[in-house]
Amino acid sequence: MDLWVKILIGISIPFFALVAVVVYRLLTLQKSLGKTKYLTLDPSVIHALVTRVSKEYAEDLDLKAALDLLIEVLIDNVSFTAASFLIPVTENSSDFNFKSHLVYEVPEAYVKGNIDVLKKYVEEHMEVSVENINREVEGGPINSSSNVQALSRVILPIEVGLLRGALCITSRKRDHFSEQLTEDLKELIHSVSECLELLWGVARRERRKFKAMVDSMRDGVFMVDEEYRFLIANPALKDMLGLYSSESVNVVRVSSFFSRHLSFEDLVSEVFVMGKTKKIEHLELEDKIYTLTVIPVKVKNVVSAVVCLLEDQTKDAELEEMRRDFSAMIIHELRSPLSVIRGTSDFLLKESANMDDSQEMTFMEQIKESSTKLLALVNNLLDSAKIESGKIELSKKMTDLAKLIKSEVEYYAYSARQKKINLKSDVEVGLAEVNVDSEKIQQVLNNLISNALKYTPDGGEIVVGALHTGDTVRLYVSDTGRGIADENKDQIFDKYKRVEGGSLTSDGEKSTGLGLAISKGIVEAHEGKIWVEDNEPKGSRFIVELPA
Amino acid sequence: MKKILIIEDDQSLYNVYSAELKLRGYEVEHEADGMKAMAKIEDYKPDLILLDIILPGRNGLEILEEMFSRDEFEDMKVIMVTNYGNDSNVKKALELGAIDYVLKYNIVPSELSARVAEALGESEDTPVKITS
């Protein structure tokens, strides 16, 4: 839901900004109006108009609606026969909207004449060719028997930042537009345009910010109006639908994308009718799992559009599955030593009379061994939980790594000899002490060396080394085991990722994979790095890099 | 003497299960490697098999499937002995032909030998406590 808070803030900020600008603009406008002497238009009319235009315009950035409003005001205050405008449908389009407000009954030729005059003006001044005109006429009505003619006219450019069309006011009277009235009209349009320009500028900037935010989202975001027109469609959505960024999203594309699970049109119309958010989870589409949320966008309590959010939750689902597998594995690993402890102790209690001493000793030992395993596993789980919640605490002190490595190698010497593995150390002479939590670094070395012992076949070699490189110290443990495939080199440090075939050691012993995840947590808490490389000529080399 | 084959990779568990079963008068053999399990079954011809699921090399359910696909093992008695108690594993093992399914952490050796006796049709002679 965070996202929607963001979007709502994104939408409301431009509105607040617009209101602020409008108030400021009105104050300055009032001042300038005070200086200008209007003969035919009362300053309060302009004031009221600008207020209305600002308010309405702020809501839907619609030049056509703003012009309609302007003409309405003109009709109430100035006498004329028709006021018409011609503006492009969208910026740089060759399709234009023509609208004429007729105050009196006129013949078709009157309207036609207005269109021609405006078309000529626009083509000349805007340097475009007007190809299609959507015509709209209000008032009048048009009456073919009327013989009214446009005997005087004034053409006013509509400039909001740049030329965006023209307004033509005509009268059936000759010499209707005095020089003063023409000036007043120009001044009026100019004031309104200036206000619109400011509003437009702010709105555009805010829109750009909003678009940048929506475009950078990894979830698909789109907005649809009641006629299934796509008002917003971000690149992530196009990507999900398999479209190129230059292609446009339409309802057919989206409907067919969802068609296996739902009717997109029905869903959208339901949200329009009910005005409530709908969320549809676990949509399996083209090997991915999505959640679709459809949110009504209300303007004055009426749903004017719906915003849809399409979240790709494949990764979350995969992670969830890995967590489940991990839990199942841990449960199994906890039950194994418990089964031995419980079974063996029960047997000893019941049957010790039927056993010789050496058999009894074997059973006692296997109870001890299993409880040690269990303890180690529980400790690992606790460590890993600490690391995951970021609660790992280090008690650093200056540590002699050469000494630490020596004692580790001695500790594992017996196990190595049993497997006929040559375990040796290779520490750079004169290696300076480093400030680390020595117990935790020892735990890392324990993990790495015991892993190396597990995965290295009899007769192999394990080297534990340390050296300076620049301002870091590198510890490494190399082995002559079977090595780690490139695609698994990162995954083995992730406790939830099971590496195929990787959980069985050379002697068939099972591994939880917790050791490496813990080691990574410890090393990263030291602001160091841990990774694995191929060892030459064979096996793996685990490298720990710590700040010196 | 009835012959029991324990297919189990945990040496400690094998130790205690085999000690219990030998005390009850069974002959017991062991196999820890999933890959060698079929050969061992053919070779030893046990009366009953205690079969683990997670095994090195080969999964216990795969072994079960292969064995029951062969006519000569049609009547083999198999008890699954595992720590994986999920419903789908239990269902699958019983569908494939296992006669019982026990959880290691939930059963002590004396209970296991009782289940073995029951499976071999000897339970009336040796009354023992049966766990659920």
What's the topology here?
The complex is a heterodimer of chains A (548) and B (132).
Chain A: H1 2-35, H2 43-60, H3 63-77, E1 82-88, E2 95-102, H4 108-126, E3 132-139, E4 152-160, E5 162-171, H5 179-215, E6 220-225, E7 230-233, H6 235-241, H7 251-258, H8 264-274, E8 278-285, E9 288-299, E10 302-312, H9 314-351, H10 357-388, E11 397-399, H11 401-418, E12 422-427, E13 434-436, H12 438-455, E14 461-469, E15 472-478, H13 514-525, E16 529-534, E17 540-547
Parallel strand pairs in A: 2-3, 12-14
Antiparallel strand pairs in A: 1-2, 1-5, 4-5, 6-7, 6-10, 8-9, 9-10, 11-13, 14-15, 15-17, 16-17
Chain B: E1 3-7, H1 11-23, E2 27-31, H2 37-44, E3 48-51, H3 60-68, E4 77-82, H4 87-96, E5 100-103, H5 109-119
Parallel strand pairs in B: 1-2, 1-3, 3-4, 4-5
Helix pairs in contact in B: 1-5, 3-4
Give the strand order, joined by hyphens, for the main sheet of chain B: 2-1-3-4-5
Spans of chain B of at least 5 consecutive residues whose pLDDT stays below 50 are none
Query: What is the H/E order of chain A?
Result: HHHEEHEEEHEEHHHEEEHHEHEEHEEHEE
Per CATH, the superfamily of chain B is: Response regulator
CATH architecture name of chain B: 3-Layer(aba) Sandwich
The number of strands of chain B is 5
Largest interface: A-B, 25 and 24 residues
Give the N-to-C terminal Cα separation of chain A: 44 Å
Tell me what portion of residues of chain B adopts beta-strand conformation.
15-25%
Rg of chain A, nearest Å: 39 Å
- Strand arrangement in the largest pleated sheet of chain A: 3-2-1-5-4
Second-tier CATH architecture of the largest domain in chain A:
2-Layer Sandwich
Number of domains of chain B: 1
| Rg over CA atoms of chain B | 13 Å
Helix share of residues of chain B? Answer: 25-40%
- How many domains make up the coordinates of chain A? 4
Instruction: Write the CATH fold name of chain B.
Output: Rossmann fold
Beta-strand portion of chain A reads 15-25%
Assign the CATH topology of the largest domain in chain A: Beta-Lactamase
